[in-house]
């Protein structure tokens, strides 16, 4: 963490401890309460709208999965706090991806909650804490305001795209599980769901992996983010044309287009990865 003052490193370490403790103590309880409320609400909904029954199985699996990812991220933040205070460089990308987990997972858990339960968005607390840690680690590094603005925009949009893409994958699986002619597919509007969901999930993984690589200014991280964003755009845009009952795929295509724009702007690219990485010597 050479690009941060001793005071900033100490603050980031303290922030990592606070977020880490939250992920180990409070977040598991919030996730469980949220899950039970969502399931209870869906049990009532499916009495009249059985097409939403598949949501129960999906949320029963993915809420605990994101809770587990957040728990491990909390352990990583606690383990890296002291090395971060000492200035060890490896802690920067680790802290970024670790805080991204609750930011993304909390936002995913928020969407079913606000749709079926309503009221105060309990899972958003997880996302807010994750974002506080993510932005704190990102912005406390020593750099000018232009570099901070570029990184804030790029990393935030990549996280938003990852969240939205993962959620679209869940929606695709939910609809496929209760399609009218199951196990057959009734035309293009159902076929395309077998493409968009999996592509969006693959892109989600690529975007998460890209975050620590971009933090290290690796061109591999830039390429991963580019390929993932382009994949989302190329699959969400036609899906929106085929399935017009919701604008969710349009939002995904817009997020992907914005991410592509940020990544491709020459000034942004120079800020993220520099002109080029040094070539390895031959032999």
- Arithmetic mean pLDDT: 92
N/C terminus separation: 32 Å
Q: Estimate the helix proportion, in percent.
A: over 70%
Largest sheet features:
none
Low confidence ranges: 277-283
Q: Write down the domain tally.
A: 2
Q: How would you sum up the global shape?
A: globular
What is the helix tally?
10
Structural class: mainly alpha
Strand content: under 5%
Record field, number of beta strands: 0
Order of helices and strands: HHHHHHHHHH
C-alpha Rg, in Å? Answer: 20 Å
Give structural notes.
The protein is mainly alpha-helical and 283 residues long. It has 2 domains: 1-142; 145-273, no CATH class. The protein has 10 helices and no strands. The longest helix has 40 residues, at 6-45.
Give a summary of the structure in a few sentences.
It is built from 10 helices and no strands. It has 283 residues and is mostly helical.
Features:
single chain; 283 residues; 10 helices; mainly alpha; globular
Q: Layout of helices and strands, plus pairs?
A:
Elements: H1 6-45, H2 54-86, H3 91-116, H4 124-139, H5 145-177, H6 188-191, H7 193-215, H8 219-242, H9 248-264, H10 266-273
Helix pairs in contact: 1-2, 1-3, 1-4, 2-3, 3-4, 3-5, 3-7, 5-7, 5-9, 7-8, 8-9
